[in-house]
Design goal:
By secondary structure, the protein is mainly β. Helix content is 0%, strand content 39%. It starts with a strand and ends in an 11-residue tail after the last strand.
């Protein structure tokens, strides 16, 4: 069963500037707004696992560029422009009463249970 977590109001996301949100105990996401469309991506870059995607900048209204080594990821799909290599995780969301509700991942990246 999928669960959505309430985050910010749409009006609290500024155009082409990322906003950091703690989705659960192990997941931080970066929320962007580009041309009135909301995008939610993992805050951890898949290239070198740097948790700074929220500081990335938007290019061509389509890509978020990691501030560390400038890899570009499609905001919708998480893929790089050439479609190869590491992929940025993207998240589904819904908007209700002006708030962005982000779908919680159904699996954990790290599993520390024994
Ligand atoms: S850590 Fe993001 S491109 Fe290298």
């Amino acid at each position: 069963m999928s669960k959505y977590i309430k985050s910010f109001k749409v009006s609290e996301i500024y155009n082409k500037r990322g906003r950091l949100f703690q989705l659960d105990e192990e997941t931080e996401v970066a929320i962007f707004k580009v041309q009135d469309e909301i995008y939610v991506v993992d805050n951890v870059c898949p290239h070198n696992h740097s948790p700074l995607m929220y500081q990335g900048y938007i290019e061509d209204n389509e890509f978020v560029v990691c501030p560390i080594h400038a890899f570009r990821f499609n905001l919708k799909t998480g893929e790089q422009p050439h479609g190869k290599g590491c992929k940025l995780r993207t998240f589904k969301y819904k908007i209700e009463d002006e708030y962005i509700y982000i779908k919680k991942p159904t699996f954990k990246i790290f599993d520390f249970e024994f």
